[in-house]
Amino acid sequence: MPYYDLKCKNCDNTFNMKATITQRQNGEIACPECGSHDLEAVFKALNYVVKSSNSCDASSCSQAHRCHSGCCHG
Questions:
Q1: Whether this model's pTM surpasses 0.90
Q2: Which backbone phi and psi does 21 adopt, to 5 degrees?
Q3: pLDDT tens, residue by residue, 14-73
Q4: Is 38 inside any structural domain?
Q5: Of 27, 34, 46, 26, nearest to 8 (Cα)?
Q6: 59: number of CA atoms within 13 Å, CB side?
Q7: Which among 1, 3, 8, 45 is placed 20 to 30 Å from 25, CA to CA?
């Protein structure tokens, strides 16, 4: 089951809830503060790291500008 970051349109409470996709689509999730089902998704930044065993020279890579610490597009 996925977790959702949600904000209640009724009381402005922001919370994280584990629920099925069906529960989310059918509006079955309720605000834990006021019980309202009038919710909106809150989008947060997602950080992830991709580790690659291949490497190349940042000066010769056309995608190196996307890397903050050298090239990782082997």
A1: no
A2: -60, -40
A3: 999 999 999 999 999 999 999 999 999 998 776 667 766 555 555 555 555 555 555 555
A4: yes
A5: 34
A6: 0
A7: 45
Residue 7, domain CATH: 2.20.28
The answer to whether position 15 is within a domain reads yes
* Other Cβ atoms within 10 Å of 23 Cβ, number: 14
What pLDDT sits at residue 5?
94
Split into its structural domains, the chain has a count of 1
6 within some domain: yes
Query: Does 10 score more than 60 pLDDT?
Result: yes
Q: Is residue 62 part of a domain?
A: no
**CA atoms lying within 13 Å on the CB side of residue 61:** 16
